[in-house]
Amino acid sequence: xxxxxxxxxxIISIVVFIAVMAxxxxxxxxxxxxxxxxxxxxxxxxxxxxxxxxxxxxxxxLGVLVGMMLFVSVVKTSGLFEFMAxxxxxxxxxxxxxxMVGFILITALLSALLDNVTTxxxxxxxxxxxxDMLEIDPVPYFITxxxxxxxxxxxxxxxxxxxxxxxxxxxxxxxDFLAVDTxxxxxxxxxxxxxxxxxxxxxMQASAENEQTVMALQPKDYIKDRSLFHxxxxxxxxxxxxxxxxxxxxxxSCVVAxxxxxxxxxxxxxxxxECVKGVxxxxxxxxxxxxxxxxxxxxxxxxxxxxxxxxxxxxxxxLAMMLVIMWVSALFSAVLDNxxxxxxxxxxxxxxxATGVDVTAMWWALSLGACLGGNGTLIGASANVVLSSISxxxxxxxxxxxxxxxxxxxxxxxxxxxxxxxxxxxxPSMI
Length: 431
Hints:
Layout: H1 8-26, H2 31-44, H3 50-55, H4 59-75, H5 80-91, H6 96-113, H7 116-134, H8 139-154, H9 161-170, H10 174-199, H11 208-215, H12 226-249, H13 253-268, H14 272-277, H15 281-299, H16 302-313, H17 318-335, H18 338-353, H19 360-373, H20 382-393, H21 400-430
Helix pairs in contact: 1-2, 1-15, 2-15, 4-9, 4-13, 5-6, 5-7, 6-7, 6-8, 7-8, 7-20, 8-10, 8-19, 8-20, 9-18, 9-19, 10-12, 10-21, 12-13, 15-18, 16-18, 17-18, 17-19, 17-21, 18-19, 19-21
């Protein structure tokens, strides 16, 4: 039963949380400033202490983010990502639709192994090169790559920040994500490719002359540092294996990421100061503030009340809880950044688990809902904003309305596929 009367501390924590979310959604001030300002208000008003706020920061999540950002900042200087993009275009023999499928697959793969924002930053410029040569509109490519990045990021522990947060909170390993989320992401990606075939496939044509221009490109010409190129491939393989085994080795995922970053910097002899510039420190600051703001909701008992409400609405039915969490996550993540939402839901699911309910399926429902929901609108995920900005800067604007017209129906399609997958996988154990 939801408690109708709130304490002063609860009211302040709720107001601050809503204010921070509103500022993040409005983008009138930087989201890192909004989150850190909210944390400071909570400390100054005595809702939380500085020490308790620090205790709520998930340093494992921050460690994975910093480590992978440093790692990618070195790898990208080798030309590996450009090589893969050109190679994909040549394998597709210059055919626009085949190239689109190739870029979808490569974006999804890189987003699963690295970071989806970094992936779109690297694949985006190469997409422009290929589309300019073919003299075709790059916007459909960008839209499909945005969605592929979010779907690919869903597949693994390190592909999308929400998964890092969920894995850290629930004690889920890289292998756990491969076993549950990866099959779902594959089914979803197949459905999306078939849907895009109907939307874009028949409209995409290029002259034979332009196709030959693309075929004349030599992928090896885009390798900037051959030695680093080979080292990067080897290290990426090592990183993937290490993330798969970190649970069995008794290592936190942040140790794997930071170790990989250190090794990559050492073997490449990269300039540390340049590598550090590759870290999105504003994102790290945003996480720190956000963890404190959500921590205040935990400390004041608001999260516990929300958990009780979900249990009341679903009549303590685990299957109903799973579906509610999954679809609510998707719809909220479509209109808000999925990171704040996941940070809010993690303690809710933990509170439900504390009552004795098996919340295993709920963690996966949160992961799939939050990551796939990001495809609903242009502001649903960071990768959406980044790649649309690249497109607009190059004279090919992607408006909120034009993206939502395609993205929201696609998001609903992916959620239907994911829901069927989750029901088949978990319903037998819940009946």
